[in-house]
Automatic annotation (TrEMBL):
Homotetramer. One of its GO terms (molecular function) is single-stranded DNA binding. SUPFAM superfamilies: Nucleic acid-binding proteins. One of its GO terms (cellular component) is nucleoid. InterPro entries: NA-bd_OB-fold (IPR012340), Primosome_PriB/ssb (IPR000424), ssDNA-bd (IPR011344). HAMAP family: SSB. One of its GO terms (biological process) is DNA replication. Keywords: DNA-binding. This is Single-stranded DNA-binding protein. The lineage of its organism: Bacteria, Pseudomonadati, Bacteroidota, Flavobacteriia, Flavobacteriales. It comes from Leeuwenhoekiella aequorea. It holds the Pfam family SSB.
Amino acid sequence: MSTIRNHVQLIGNVGQEPTITNLESGKKVARFSLATNEYYKDAKGEKQTDTNWHTVVAWGKTAEIVEKFVEKGKEVGISGKLKTRSYTTDDNEQRYVTEVIADEILLLGSKSDK
């Protein structure tokens, strides 16, 4: 049962080109936004779309896959966990950020030129 604790799976479209950072330790980190859509009909019977945006962070080998194959607009599947962290702004305000830490990435859709 512990394998389903803090587990998230998302399928969506990449909202921006991934940002790749090479750390001093030699590890890679990839960050990108992912849009997921839910569809429903409103009271008038018209189709509506509700879009949610998620920040995805990938480390190591997963980051290398992101660097090579993931680009803006690409449909991907993500499996990982949620991580919330906080930081203090220059104005001394406390902010909280929730990110999806990707353990696995599945490339969906058609092949690209990348």
